Amino acid sequence: GQVQLTAALLDRMHSKGLIHRNKAARLKSRLVRQAAAAGKN
Q1: What is the residue-level pLDDT of the chain in tens, covering all 41 positions?
Q2: What is the distance between the alpha carbons of residues 29 and 19, in angstroms, rounded to a whole number?
Q3: Complete DSSP assignment for 1-41
Q4: CA dihedral 29, 20, 10, 32 (to 10 degrees)
Q5: Which of 4, 5, 6, 18 qualifies as a cystine partner to 13, CB 3.0-4.6 A?
Q6: Distance from chain centroid for Cα 40
Q7: CA dihedral sign, ordered 32, 33, 35, 36
Q8: 7-29 as b/e, with b when 16 or more CB fall inside 10 Å?
Q9: Could you tell me which of 31, 28, 1, 34 has the C-alpha nearest to residue 12?
């Protein structure tokens, strides 16, 4: 779904050197948490 596509985009941004590895991991973590919270409602 959308979460997987966005996570893949963040991975690509990191591999191209656009963002730091930890930032990519942090954003993916936030993304998953938000998606889980949205799923509960």
Answers
A1: 999 999 999 999 999 999 999 999 999 999 999 999 999 87
A2: 15
A3: -HHHHHHHHHHHHHHTTSS-HHHHHHHHHHHHHHHHHHHH-
A4: 0
A5: 18
A6: 19
A7: positive
A8: beebeeebeeeebeeeebeebbe
A9: 28
